[in-house]
Amino acid sequence: MSGTLQDKLRKFLSKKTRKQIEKQDKLRKLLAKMRKKQKKLEQELADETNPETQAELRKDIRILKEQRRKGLEHLQSLRERAPE
Amino acid sequence: MARRLPLIVLLILLGWMFWSSPTLSGIASGVAVFLFGMMALEQGLRGLTGGTLEALLRRSTDRLWKGLAFGAGTTALTQSSTLVSLLTISFLSSGLLGLKQGLGVIFGANLGTTTGAWLLAGPALHFNIGAGALPLLTFGVVFILTRNRILRALGWVLVGIGFLFLGIQWMKEGFETFQQAFDLTEFAMTGLGGLLLYTLVGIAATVIMQSSHATLIIVITALAAGQITYDNALAVSIGANVGTAVSTGLAAITTNTAGRRLAAAHLIFNLVTGLIALVFIQGFLSAVELGSSWLGIAEDNFTIRLALFHTLFNLTGIVVMVPLMGRLVSLLENRMPSMPLQLDQPKYISNNMLETPGAALEATRRELLRLFRRAFSLIAQVLNYEAGQLRKAESRAQLETLPDRIRSVDVDALYLRTIKPLHGLIVDFMARLSVEGDRARQLVLLRVASQDLIEGVKDAKHLQKNMVRYLREPDSPMGKEYLSMRRHLGHLLRQLDQLAAEGEESNEDMELELATLSTRVEENDIVDNGRLDELIRNNRINAEQATSLMNDNAYTNRIARNLLNMARAVFQPFAALDPELRDAIALNPGEVRALLNELNTANSQQEKTDP
Questions:
Q1: Average pLDDT of B437-459?
Q2: Is the domain of B371 the same as that of B259?
Q3: Complex ipTM value
Q4: Chain B residues with CB-CB distance to A37 below 8 A
Q5: Do B326 and B369 fall within a single domain?
Q6: Could you tell me if residue B545 is inside a domain?
Q7: Would you list the DSSP string of B580-606?
Q8: Do the chains contact at B599 and A74, CB–CB below 8 Å?
Q9: Does A7 lie at the interface with B, CB-CB under 8 angstroms?
Q10: Of B53, B241, B474, B511, which is the most exposed, with the fewest CB atoms less than 10 Å away?
Q11: Residue B217: per-residue pLDDT
């Protein structure tokens, strides 16, 4: 068995690695949902005529963007932390 | 007095036995030691496998065959159908298991229990197991005296097996000595009368001893000693099967409707199985004959043949009853409908669940969800929303609509009537739950969540006074602020109610929605976002009004934060909670403020540039 294959197998069998992968998957799913929600809000903003609602939607979008940015940073750090 | 009569008769009978015959007292002591062994074994197995069994049961509910295999496998392994039945009743009562899945487990447990007859009729009778009892008891007691929980549980298992061995040995010796003095086969009865009478004896013995294993060991040792005829022993084994369901039924009296339905199904199953065995006994005897010749069982080995008979008729019961399971479930649901609960009655938690902590914690979580719905209704009334109307409100305009008449509700009376009794029961239940490790953390989370919910309700009471006063003048500057607070809290309540209903559907959706709601709370804090200062600077409110607004803003925020904290702990099962995922997207108050400032600056710059 080649060294790489052994490494891959070890990674697969390691509980820690599996947990890490699970966490990354969950966060990735969450970020995808946030992206979808952001698009939906942007569409609502484009259709909205009431200035007050427009301001609220802008606020929601900005906050969602910030949350996504934080989430992406966390995902990056999880990837970096992943055992080689 | 009349209720205690059977016990008094039993005690007198035992006393007479001990006085008149050392042999009979040997048999009676053997039975008592055997029963004590069963209890010790059950206690040990509960400590040793409790968590594992619960985790396995959770995974064995999606397919009928899995439920059957779980029931049969765990009962064969633990030799305790009572343990499996009680675990299943707890899971069913807590809503973790449906009736059909529960039936699968119970049917399987019935098959699993037949392995006991094989063990008792085989190795237990043919070896001097009494010799092994003393070392087991000694090692067991040493383990029980240690501090380690697992070793202690193992100790109880060893002590249990030790006493079982000792009990069997005493019974065996007792019947062998008894044989020299009396011949009980003189009382043997043949034909239908004998079949029915000895079936009744089996039922009575199992109900009294609360163990079909105990009845079987008596009949097997008596059969081995030639003190009971083979035909009568078969009838006693049929009775033991029915008797065990009667015992489960008695245990289920204190559970909720779901638990009682399962116990009734168990009784029906065992009655039908017993009836089939009685009606087709000749057919079963032929089948035993055939099976014995295939398996090479000697013609005079009646104890093993009895075990084979016991397995065959239980297996037949499963084959007959599984296709009828759907109908049985409908019948039980129709005949035993869920009774409308009183306000102070719990729906999920019950005392007999305290022995199964996993199910008990899940039941507590579900009970807290019920409590949340009551708190939702109370806070909605404080805000002058109809609960149903709030659940349906989709737009901002619907959340802003005021009723024709602004009312004040008696929060204390409502709290005492709808919330406090149930909350008290939940707190009492949690206090009596004994858990360790991860489960202890879950219990703390639930306890804090229940407190958060109550504090939310109490803050709503304080908020009501000014809320009602200013909602009556919605066009004034203060009225507009209270209208805005009402809308924000209304929106939060509605979203939480929806999340509570969706519950376990998606972990990510729940986290995202809770994070959004949490940010909104920060956003809407009129002290932090500068709105209060603006109102004061522009002389739209006076100093007294400003302090009222500040206090009520604090109440509103506290209600929102408490409800959100409660939702995080209660809306999802503990296993689905992921604090890291939550923290990954959470914005702290400082970050929200910075964002709002950035947005305000952008808005004012746009206003300046706009013509």
A1: 92
A2: no
A3: 0.75
A4: 512
A5: no
A6: yes
A7: HHHHHH---HHHHHHHHHHHHHHHHHH
A8: no
A9: no
A10: B474
A11: 82
